[in-house]
Amino acid sequence: MKKSLLALLIGMCIQTAQAQVKISYPHLRQVFQRNNLNEATFSVLGNYTGTVDQVQAKLIPVEAGQGQPLDWFTLDAKPKAGLFQGSIKVQGGWYQLLVRTLVNQQVKDSTLLSRVGVGENFIISGQSNAEGTFRRPNDTEATDDRVIAANFFNYFKEYNPSTNNKYIGEYSLDYPMTEFRKIDSTVTIGPMGLSNFYWPILGDSLVKKYNVPVCFINTAWLGTGIKNWAESSRGLLTASQWAPEIYYPKGFPYANLKRAVEVFGQKNGVRAILWHQGENDAFHKTSYADYKNYLLEVITTLRKHTGMDVPWIIAEASSVSVQLSDGSCTPTLWSTDIVQAQKDVVSTSGVPFLFSGPNTEDVEIPRKSDCIHFSRGAYLTLADLWYQKISKQLDAIKTPIIPKAMPNIQIACSPNYELSVDLSTNFKKVTWLNASSAKIGTQLKNQLLGTGDYSAILEDDLGNQFTVPNFSLNTFPIPAKPRISVLGDTLMCEGKSVELKALGSGVNYSWSNGFQGLSQTIKTTGSFQVKTTDANGCISDYSNKVQVQTFPQPVASITTFGPYMLKLNTTQLDPQINYQWELNGVSLGEKSNLLRVRSSGKYALTLSKRYTNTLTCLSAKAEFDYTLPADGGMSIFPNPASNEVNIECINSLAGAEFLLYNWDGRLALQGKISQDGAFNLNLAGIYSGKYQLVLKSEGQVFNKSLIVVK
Question: Does the global pTM surpass 0.70?
């Protein structure tokens, strides 16, 4: 088992060196505050290269028994733009975090974070017997790898000669999240720990009891009185009680405590503030009421400023002696008022989540180092006193501050192919920073970003900040423009249709005519293009155009043209039209717009028009029920007539001969008709009377009586 695990870790280390996948958050040796069920949920954020299908994570205890392993699970099912994110819920412990990317269910790249924990976080505060005294080369250190500090410093650099901490500048509040270290003799418990003091010993004891990592942050400030903490919490300058002409920087010492809760309380979570302070106030004879009121003010102001009801474990401490110029110590002073105020703040103030800490009044009296500060000989005792109180109070602190989740970073493609980034969070403001830490945006929604490295600073209504660590984004590839498959003919008659289908790998398709979908049926003339939207929301260019043209169908309608002819009912003939006449379903040979009819029946007309070599459009069939007149096949009108008479015949008139006889059989008029159709016979010179009109056509003779009236 050990050999296989070793092989796995060696492989992971090799892949880590290749930097194909990177964990940006959590940070190395970061400890997340567990709840009273011994579990915590923490965010994971990182980057990968290339294209991946999903990102998986796994937790392995650093050593057997240091937590509950968590086998591979999907951390991010749909990573985008080179960014993956997710969260892990795990039991208290000390873990290696393994992350791998997969493509087609095969591992592509992997990496690990060698140490991350779920355990206990404490913020130390007060004055020098919490802060520690001037560092020595062989400072105290933890024996267990799981005792952690944020290793940075923001006080006078010369007070802490360790070269192993990150010095961020005097009074700087730009607290780093990347400096967590095991507390060894070179580490600083930042931001204010002058020495490690007895805290590593306490850490070892707590780790041994609870089998979880423990992290300390130290905001204590030497020589401070409770008034300094209260006044600075109001944003005021506050004078040193030891040298009233000297003022602490505005907002300090409180600013360090507030910032520690703001930064580490939100990111890591915190079990409690460990408060050890009172010696200064005993020496300067602060009253019971003042001490109690000032301490309550600090507690309530901190909660108001941060929006977090961080529990406090308040030590009972007042014993003080100072060193005289000759090296001797003044007699030790104790203040029952201070100690009683500390007790009553916990027990009778009515402020919740306050707990009794150790009573250090009788520890190392007199103090061997410099009269006032604990010497190394007292460290074991002090650590044990704190251990006894914390272990007793831990279960009573039912509402530790749990770590806040990273905002969900939602990424989509903007119309100009930048990334449109939304932050899903309860924070109200954001400042986006580029790789040079320059401000580039303030949008919680639709922040446009290109390929590059970014971070963000979120801010709530109280002004508290929450940083999103550096991460990288890669813009999405522009999707290839789709093609259009044509199912049918793009040249067609009205009433017909053609199907246009998009071919591509997109998720959604938008057509130039407003249609949304993969395919559509087209029945009208137009030019059509389609563009695709991929899974990232990126929109392709339009496809090449497909031109669809519809041609009008001719319209057939039949009307009579005299008693023996049918015709197309139109006022304007189209020379491109072809005609197909039918009688009782049988095709006739006539190909013109006129049809001479010789029998009754159901006549029909179909028109056709040829637009191209491949396209001819047909009309709907028009039908007409025709009954042949009972007039012997010739019609004359008007009758009686005066100056002329119109002649129509069932036969063609072209070449027909007419003869007009008077009542006694004498020929009055004769002639030939040159063309078919209706013929107007001129009756000029014909007298009134009764006549017989004879028509000879196509071998037939037709007779009609005619009356002429002049």
Answer: yes
